[in-house]
Amino acid sequence: MTLRLAAVDLGATSGRVMVVEVGPDDLGLTEVHRFPNGAARAADGSLRWDVRRLYDEVRAGLAHAGRIDGVGIDAWAIDYGLLDDAGELVEAPYCYRDGRTDGVAARVREQVGAAELYRRTGVQQLPFNTIYQLVAAADSPAIDRARTMLLVPDLLGYWLTGVPGAERTNASTTGLYDVRAQAWDTDLAARVGIDPGLLPPLRSPGEVLGPAVGLDVPVVAVGSHDTASAVVSVPFADPSAAYISSGTWSLVGLELDAPVLSEAARLADFTNEAGVDGATRFLKNVMGLWVLSQSVDAWGTELTTVLTAAAACEPLRTVVDIDDASLLPPGDMPARIAALARSAGEPVPSTPAEVTRCILDSLALAYRRTVRRAGALAGREPRVVHVVGGGSRNELLCQLSADALGLPVLAGPAEAAAIGNGLVQARALLHLQGSVDLPDLAAMRALVRRTHPPRRYEPRPGADWDAAEQRLDRVRAEA
Question: Over the stretch 172-185, which tens digit does the pLDDT of each residue have?
Answer without folding.
Answer: 999 999 999 999 99
